[in-house]
Amino acid sequence: MDAQELYDDAARERLVAEPPKRVDAPIRTPFERDRARVVHAAASRRLAAKTQVVDPQADDFVRNRLTHSLEVAQVARDLSRALGSQPDIAETAALAHDLGHPPFGHNGERALAALAEECGGFEGNAQTLRLLTRLEAKTFHADGHSVGLNLTRATLDACTKYPWTRAEAPAESGKFGVYADDLPVFAWLRSAAPPGTRQCLEAQVMDLADDVAYSVHDVEDGIVADRVDLTRLDPPAVWQTVREWYLPDASDADLDDVLAGLRTQGSWPTTPYDRSRRGQAALKNLTSDLIGRFCGAVQHATFAAGEGPFMRYAADLVVPDRTRLEIAVLKGIAAHYVMQAEDRLALMVRQRELLHELVAELLRRGPDALQRPLADDWHAAADDSARLRVVIDQVASLTDASAVSWHARLTVPGA
């Protein structure tokens, strides 16, 4: 059976029914249309100027949120096609997965989470759902409210990395996928899901693709930035970071064994990166081999666990424990040598201060300082909590550079 035929009318349904396209328009599936809508969204373009790990203006090579999302999309599409599910759904979810992330990467996310405490907190994935179903306007309901890009149920479900509310969030992570005032659309998109907080298969593919790309490419960026040397690691220090950031119960012995296994990968470096063309090629081969290693292990384990079909709620992605540990080791290397570097820690403090000052000033000035759509939301807000959410929506939409320029224009005398 063709992958397209696995998805029923409910999976293809949109919040607002749309008339057929004109007869001379290209024939596309509903999921191909979803992908096009995300690609053409203004929020997608803004990702090019948002931090992934290293400031996108710091180096021409390092990844930004847009290039990261494109790489996640490629991994997700290939794995989805290999499993026999609809690749457009997984790819669209991957392209959309970081749309809600604010300026300054996860550092900015933590700052806005603290600032938004009185209106229900902030989480980049919940912001993504809000953007797709409200803020990035393309279609309106008959009652006059925006339904965002009006994506299909299956695509929106695949975009929901954390299908639970803040109150249901695991204590160890605090991650959640929906704000209180977006619960109606969340209930609609999850109407076909079984009870509980299970991700659909396509969301699991997106989630894994994000982890794979994040772990491999952040190490690659760290190597090129001269912050990571895979031939001179300090395992005890890295393992402490792995436990603090990702796997609190991982033992030194297990992590030592996993690193030893990664070093048997034929393309694992034995000499430091020297920036030559041969060195560049070797680094690219390493990233390609690691992605293939992780995705191959997951594909094999998933096929071994059942006959499928591998779509929606008919099956789950199976990630071997060993693969999870290998990914965590790479993420720990990047976190230890790049994200915890002293020069970055000082910069991160200033970034958080900037966002605190910007939010305070926007709250003080009100709608005159907001972009028109957000000013309209301010006027429609019922109370201070709702107005705070509007300001958070505004700041979250900014790029790194525009956050700095807005701050200078609004808070620096004579700027």
Topology:
Blueprint: H1 9-12, H2 30-39, H3 42-46, H4 65-83, H5 87-96, H6 105-115, H7 124-135, H8 153-159, H9 183-189, H10 201-224, H11 235-245, H12 252-262, H13 277-305, H14 321-339, H15 342-365, H16 372-380, H17 384-397, H18 400-411
Helix pairs in contact: 2-5, 4-5, 4-10, 4-13, 5-8, 5-10, 6-15, 8-10, 10-13, 10-14, 11-14, 12-14, 15-17, 15-18, 16-17
Q: Overview of this structure, please?
A:
With 415 residues, this protein is mainly alpha-helical. The protein is 57% helix and 0% strand. The chain has helices spanning 9-12, 30-39, 42-46, 65-83, 87-96, 105-115, 124-135, 153-159, 183-189, 201-224, 235-245, 252-262, 277-305, 321-339, 342-365, 372-380, 384-397, 400-411. It is globular, with a radius of gyration of 22 Å. The model has no long low-confidence stretch (mean pLDDT 92).
Q: What value does the Rg take, in angstroms? A: 22 Å
CA-CA gap between termini: 62 Å
Overall number of strands? 0
pLDDT < 50 stretches: none
